[in-house]
Amino acid sequence: MKYLLLFVLSFCVLASCDIDQCEQTITYTKAVAIYEDLDQLRSNDIMSPAKPITSPGKIYVSESIIMIGEKGEGIHIIDNRDPSNPTSVSFLDIPGNYEMFVKDNYIYANAYYDMLKIDISDVNNIFVADRLEEAFEVRFRNFENRGLVGFQRSEVKEERSCDSHFADGEIYFFDDQGALLEESAIPTSFVSNGQTVGTANRMAMIDNSLFTINKTDLYIFDASGTSIQRHTQYDSHTSIGWNMETIYAHGNLLFTGAQNGMDIRRVTANEVIYEGGYFHATGCDPVLPTTEGIAYITLRSGDECPGDVNSLSVVDFNNLSNPILRQEIDMSSPYGMTLINDRLYVGEGEFGLKVFDASQRVALTEIETVTNVSAYDIMPHPTRTDLILLASSTGLVQYEIDQDDDFVPLSRISF
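Predicted structure:
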């Protein structure tokens, strides 16, 4: 009998008998890498005819121009000298662009792994003044030396063993040969699906130094003159945290908002010094500091934002090493915000727009909720205090604020 049992076990091993095997059906998102010739992309002309806005990203407003990013593709240029009749002028073809910052007559924009400095002094003759290639390292290339430029996503349903690390409902990244890629090493812009419109910037500038963040790192560039280079006065690439979302420059201070708090750093002539931070529940976190040493922080849950808190916080940062919460206001779903004179406008997405009396800065009083508008991001006009621009899920609307503080729509740029 003993020899018979050994024979059966040996036979099962040789015949791959299903002993104690467990399989389960899971559904996950399979993201397969797309590679392109980066040199070919760099050689494309930047100016092209105006076209419809289909996937809006970051938004910038100047006295006469509106710029609206097209996620992953470039920037729409719109003539806004007459706010009642904005007119599309051109489209800047910038493959891989998600972020932009505008100062003086230049746009600073990422293009996959490069940083561009674009001259817009003549809107009819926009050109790349300088390009810093691989300003953000190229971490993935295929066997043809092409760079990773994105992923083709599809939903997959398949059988996997119960001890597989694949989980239902997750997303997994693969190269073009089928090998699994480590998500933590993939550039942020390729991992995120970023659904919101006109979210706060990941770029900021102090004097001629351009600061830009991804989820974990801070990059610093020298933007003096007509060039854009890695900064030599600072450590031009440093790790500063986790799940970083926004950066805002205020004087010589940098405010970075992460999913779990706000950090404050002081920029000196040759270093960036961490001064202090304010920590809060987990969620999406734009930050707006004021000259009076008060910062407004919106915290949002849902969609791409973790946590379950929706609030507006008033934080006193006059003591940089020990910011103090002075007020917290429950909100429905806060997004972008702006301060115009003594009024703080906070977008609540499809819930409308909340207006607060901020004359005391440290203590907000709600004035009204405007429910007949949709407001994800809010931009003041740089020279007219009676104009405000609201980005919704379907378009950018310009409103005139009349003497009764009513919002009178002037024009819409549809998405």
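Summary: DSSP finds three helices and 34 strands in the chain.
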